[in-house]
Write a structure and sequence with these properties.
The protein is mostly helical and about 70 residues long. The chain has helices at about 1-15, 20-30, 30-70. The longest helix has about 40 residues, at about 30-70. It is elongated and about 65 Å long.
């Protein structure tokens, strides 16, 4: 099962890598305002995975502490 997941990640990462060239071309042909907007959009999209990860870790720690407290 792990090998299937690894192969899936390799396939998805190779297709996402090709998008970088498109963004670079847009920024090179545009003005500085377009580049700033693109950077802001990337930062905006980057926040959510980290936010979900932090919430998930918080909930796991909270559950672990609750289970540890009820056992003792």
């Amino acid at each position: 099962m792990r090998y299937k997941i690894i192969i899936l990640f390799i396939i998805l990462s190779s297709t996402s890598y090709s998008q970088c060239a498109m963004c670079k071309a847009v920024v090179q042909n545009g003005d500085s305002k377009m580049a700033e907007s693109l950077n802001s959009g990337i930062l905006y999209l980057m926040i959510f995975p980290y936010l979900f990860l932090a919430i998930g870790i918080y909930l796991l720690i909270k559950k672990y502490k609750k289970n540890k407290k009820s056992v003792t």
